[in-house]
């Protein structure tokens, strides 16, 4: 019997069904068949692969970055029930079954109850890491990280995550500080999107100072503010009012038009769109911008208030992919349920030269 028989998948609380639909579909495309166990609003679920060796194979075969609703993942065994006292000592007997790991990561569900475990998780993680380092169990440069997913001081999933095929952010969450001058909290969505979709070393080239951008559904200006921080020249399209301080930057032209009929006078580097409308309408908009060559890259939200959120997401992404492929356009499309997204996902579409 292998210790590992499941993946532990973290997601935003309330999106367990979307994460379940996603892992079931993506795993089956690769020939892995399992079943999910989930509780609504738990902030995580498990995907069971009882056949020995399959959970480990799946986590190496499936690209973490291609997942939308799954924020973080690990391969694990059944939930351990630890007794009080020497918890580190109770973990040790399981480790001989593990691949080499370079460090210890202790995570917990992103729920009110889960976040209360942050202090315990930190302390337990550093005690365990210290012990394992002294005992020579942690090996620098190893491809995996030892993962503990904590449900309480007693109930812990023990597993590992591939270092290069998992999120480097604790619990898969990028914590950003809200900039006080920004006109709205939405500003963090665009900032997080850039961190996720654009590698840091490409920011200077792909988000260059002096570039041009169109912000559709811009008011009051949280996304425009981010573009202006990069010193871009922005056309902000919205019938609503923009924050006056932002307009004083001199970098923003406010156009009171409908986002869905607006056409830029000249192609721009970036189009971003945070309009609240039917997702399929926004998907068509993205295709139109690409077909017309109006921008090099775009970031847009698909708002998902409906029940079948995974199906709706797939339909929109398929629509974009099919239409651009039919037009012979080279592109890269990615989507992610970001930490700062609520009932929506963020998409990134880039023209490939
Ligand atoms: C979620 S808010 C955008 C927030 C903005 N991204 C920010 O960071 O402050 C959505 C905006 O879309 C605008 N909007 C909705 N439908 C629109 C349309 N058809 N054309 C242009 N703007 C639209 C609304 O007026 C609203 O200001």
Helix proportion: 25-40%
**Total discrete domains:** 2
- Measured distance between first and last alpha carbons: 50 Å
> Strand pairing plus helix content: what structural class?
alpha/beta
Helix and strand succession? EHEEHEEHEHHEEHHEHEHEEHEHEE
Instruction: Write down the CATH class of the largest domain.
Output: Alpha Beta
3D shape: elongated
- CATH topology assignment of the largest domain: Alpha-Beta Plaits
Q: Estimate what percentage of residues fall within beta strands.
A: 15-25%
Description of the structure:
This protein has 353 residues and is an alpha/beta fold. It has two domains: 6-172, Alpha-Beta Plaits, CATH 3.30.70.2810; 187-351, Rossmann fold. Helix content is 30%, strand content 24%. It is built from eleven helices and 15 strands. It has helices spanning 16-29, 54-61, 87-91, 112-115, 118-134, 187-197, 203-206, 222-229, 244-247, 279-291, 309-326, and strands at 6-10, 35-38, 44-48, 72-76, 80-81, 101-107, 144-150, 155-162, 212-216, 233-237, 252-255, 268-273, 295-303, 331-336, 344-351. The strands form two sheets. Strands 1, 2, 3, 4, 5, 6, 7 and 8 form an eight-stranded mixed beta sheet that branches. Strands 11-10-9-12-13-15-14 form a seven-stranded mixed beta sheet, sandwiched between helices. α6 crosses α8 (222-229) and α10 runs parallel beside α11 (309-326). The protein is elongated. It starts with 5 loop residues before the first strand and ends with a strand.
């Amino acid at each position: 019997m292998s210790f590992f028989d499941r993946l532990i998948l973290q997601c935003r609380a309330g999106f367990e069904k979307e994460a379940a639909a996603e892992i079931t579909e993506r795993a089956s495309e690769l020939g892995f068949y399992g079943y999910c166990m989930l509780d609504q609003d738990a902030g995580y679920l498990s995907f069971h692969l009882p056949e020995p060796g399959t959970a480990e194979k799946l986590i190496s075969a499936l690209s973490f970055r291609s997942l939308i609703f799954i924020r973080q993942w690990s391969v694990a065994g059944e939930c351990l029930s630890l007794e009080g006292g020497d918890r580190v000592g109770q973990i040790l007997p399981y480790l001989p079954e593990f691949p080499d790991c370079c460090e210890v990561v202790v995570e917990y569900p992103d729920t009110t109850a889960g976040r209360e475990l942050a202090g315990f998780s930190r302390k337990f993680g550093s005690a365990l890491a210290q012990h394992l380092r002294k005992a020579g169990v942690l090996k620098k440069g190893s491809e995996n990280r030892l993962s503990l997913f904590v449900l309480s001081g007693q109930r812990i999933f023990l597993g590992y995550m591939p270092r290069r095929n998992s999120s480097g952010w604790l619990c898969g969450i990028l914590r950003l500080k809200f900039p006080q001058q920004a006109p709205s909290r939405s500003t963090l969505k665009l900032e997080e999107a850039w961190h996720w979709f654009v590698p840091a070393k490409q920011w200077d080239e792909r988000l260059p100072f002096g570039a041009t951008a169109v912000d559709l559904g811009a008011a009051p200006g949280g996304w425009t503010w981010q573009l202006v921080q990069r010193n871009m020249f922005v056309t902000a399209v919205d019938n609503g009012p923009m924050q006056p301080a932002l307009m004083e930057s001199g970098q923003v032209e406010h156009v009171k038009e409908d986002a869905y009929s607006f056409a830029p006078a000249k192609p721009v580097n970036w189009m971003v769109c945070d309009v609240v409308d039917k997702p399929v309408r926004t998907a068509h908009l993205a295709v139109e911008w690409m077909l017309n060559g109006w921008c090099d890259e775009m970031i847009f939200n698909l708002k998902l208030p409906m029940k079948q959120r995974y199906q709706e997401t797939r339909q929109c992404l398929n629509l974009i992919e099919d239409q651009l492929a039919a037009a012979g356009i080279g592109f890269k499309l990615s989507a992610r349920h970001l930490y700062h997204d609520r009932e929506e996902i963020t998409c990134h579409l880039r023209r490939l030269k």
